[in-house]
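Private note to self, pasted from the team thread so I don't lose it. Backbone tokens:
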């Protein structure tokens, strides 16, 4: 059986379902194909579940120190099982909401695994093995997302060797947790279990944690990790492991030689890879790059006419909010609107403790591109609001082009950085000057004042710190 549609979206994650919804809003007949749960990695075991655990870990840590500010709570205990049940409830509510939104906007949800038969036909096989074909007159959109990368010798077993998917569902806190990969996922989840009581070791192949992130910001997070007892091993490779009854011995190659590290659970967090296998892409003329990502232009079009791609499967930045925007752009392109991608102002957020959020250029990038720039920094330690909530680690950094006064980049490490970065992204999107932000009256006492003060510092006239 073949059903006719204008657009068929393969994948119901943060790139696919917004694409299907927006296309339906624009009057197109749309099918959204999903083989697992709607919402993709983000809703099911990525963004949302991990942030629920991160929030709990932060609250747990604060509750343990509440007596310092005159609040006596008694013994603070952790019920991991109850916490997982609560987290799963959030996930179920959100994934169910996605289906409701798709159907309310007129899109058809098709459950099953999709595969391209040709450049205008998708075959879907459901869990019962029944096949149906969907014909797309305007275009097929590939939005199959990404999957966890496995390291040879550290294949997942779901108990002692795990990935992020298992890490957000643990019902016991490991006594000793070794994380392979000092990137975003490794540090976010590693710090969760460190706060819950795990002895944490982080093994990172490169010279620094969080490669590609502002170095000053990373140093603040690294200090916090070490302050709470973490062992950080950079320039180090995880070579092999030996699983024992209830423990794991990991052989690592450090700059000074090989050694064994004992732990109870190994979390492999070395990144994500595109889910492009067995989709029939190459057979219909869709070109992949050397890393397996689908090549697209600024209108989400692949090398095969009529086939489009959005989200993680189409390459960096591999962020849910980028995927959503890309899905909406693709829908508008399919509807004949003059839409195109522009990733100048895509903010990135790392939910470590403290949080890191960035938008625009790093100092190193500004230097490489030949800008004459100045930097303004304002520490949260000088901010009354930060003191009142006992979160004074970190700062706001503004990178300013001297010639035009245009803001090149803003980098934040500290409390609520994930929320504060939206103002920074808007400033870059509107091509704001440093003076624009410095002259905008920010309410007091708030964390947002740090953006105003850092901008003023970049101009040399900050009020609440000494200008340098």
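Design output:
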């Amino acid at each position: 059986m073949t059903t006719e549609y204008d657009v068929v979206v393969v994948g119901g994650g943060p790139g696919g379902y917004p694409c299907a919804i927006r296309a339906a809003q624009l009057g197109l007949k749309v099918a959204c194909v999903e083989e697992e749960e709607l919402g993709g990695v983000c809703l099911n075991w990525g963004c949302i579940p991990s942030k629920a655990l991160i929030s709990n870990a932060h609250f747990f840590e604060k509750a343990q120190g509440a007596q310092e500010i005159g609040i006596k709570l008694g013994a603070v205990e952790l019920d991991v099982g109850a916490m997982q049940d609560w987290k799963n409830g959030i996930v179920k509510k959100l994934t169910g909401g996605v289906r409701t939104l798709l159907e309310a906007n007129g899109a058809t949800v098709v459950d099953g695994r999709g595969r391209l038969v040709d450049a205008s036909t998708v075959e879907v096989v459901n869990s019962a093995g029944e096949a149906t074909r969907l014909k797309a007159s305007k275009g097929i959109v590939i939005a199959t997302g990404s999957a966890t990368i496995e390291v040879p010798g550290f294949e997942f077993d779901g108990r002692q060797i795990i990935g992020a998917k298992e890490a957000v569902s643990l019902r016991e806190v490991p006594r000793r947790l070794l994380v392979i990969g000092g990137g975003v996922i490794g540090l976010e989840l590693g710090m969760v279990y460190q706060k819950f009581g795990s002895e944490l070791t982080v093994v990172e192949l490169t010279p620094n944690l969080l490669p590609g992130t502002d170095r000053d910001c990373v140093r603040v997070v690294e200090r916090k990790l070490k302050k709470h007892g973490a062992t950080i091993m950079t320039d180090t490779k995880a070579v092999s492991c030996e699983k024992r009854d209830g423990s794991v011995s990991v052989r690592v190659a450090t700059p000074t030689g090989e050694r064994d590290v004992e732990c109870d659970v190994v979390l492999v967090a070395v990144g994500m890879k595109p889910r492009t296998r067995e989709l029939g892409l190459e057979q219909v003329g869709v070109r992949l790059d050397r890393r397996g990502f689908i090549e697209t232009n600024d209108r989400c079009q692949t090398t095969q006419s009529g086939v489009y791609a959005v989200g993680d499967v189409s390459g960096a930045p591999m962020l849910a909010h980028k995927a959503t925007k890309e899905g909406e752009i693709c829908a508008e392109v399919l509807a004949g609107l003059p839409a195109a991608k522009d990733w100048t102002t895509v903010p990135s957020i790392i939910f470590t403790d403290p949080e890191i959020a960035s938008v625009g250029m790093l100092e190193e990038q500004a230097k490489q591109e030949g800008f004459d720039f100045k930097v303004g920094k304002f520490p949260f330690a000088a901010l009354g609001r930060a003191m009142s909530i006992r979160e004074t680690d970190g700062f706001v950094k503004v990178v300013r082009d001297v010639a035009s006064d245009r803001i090149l980049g803003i980098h934040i490490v500290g409390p609520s950085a994930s929320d504060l970065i939206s103002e920074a992204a808007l400033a870059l999107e509107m091509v704001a000057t440093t003076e624009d932000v410095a002259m905008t009256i920010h309410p007091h006492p708030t964390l947002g004042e740090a953006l105003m003060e850092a901008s003023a510092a970049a101009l040399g006239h900050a009020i609440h710190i000494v200008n340098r």
